[in-house]
Design brief:
By secondary structure, the chain is an all-alpha fold. The chain is built from three helices and no strands. The protein has a domain of about 60 residues: UraD-like (Orthogonal Bundle). Helices cover about 65% and strands about 0% of the residues.
């Protein structure tokens, strides 16, 4: 499936806006923007980033740390699911 010219232009616009907002964020706070994406599209992150640019550095430090914790916890849960046998595979025969 190919991406239409209109879809490509929309994606380029989203990437450009995110790059600009990320640069503003890093210039304002002195560290990179961290967010737990959790299935959201890049376009859905634009209003989140805009809102977070209105906050204080202390608020963003706390939010960024919480996001890193959330990301790490989500990854841990995924690893645990991979390491644990599924209920269908408890016996020697997986269904």
């Amino acid at each position: 499936m190919s991406v239409s010219d209109q879809e490509r232009k929309q994606l380029e616009s989203v990437y450009e806006e995110l790059a600009q907002l990320n640069a503003e964020y890093e210039a304002k706070f002195g560290f990179r923007f961290v967010v737990f994406v959790n299935g959201r599209s890049k376009a859905q992150l634009i209003p989140v980033l805009k809102a977070r640019l209105q906050r204080t550095r202390e608020q963003e430090l706390a939010e960024g740390l919480q996001a890193m914790i959330d990301i790490a916890y989500d990854r841990l849960q995924k690893l645990e699911r991979l390491a644990s046998p599924t209920p269908q595979c408890v016996s020697s025969i997986c269904r």
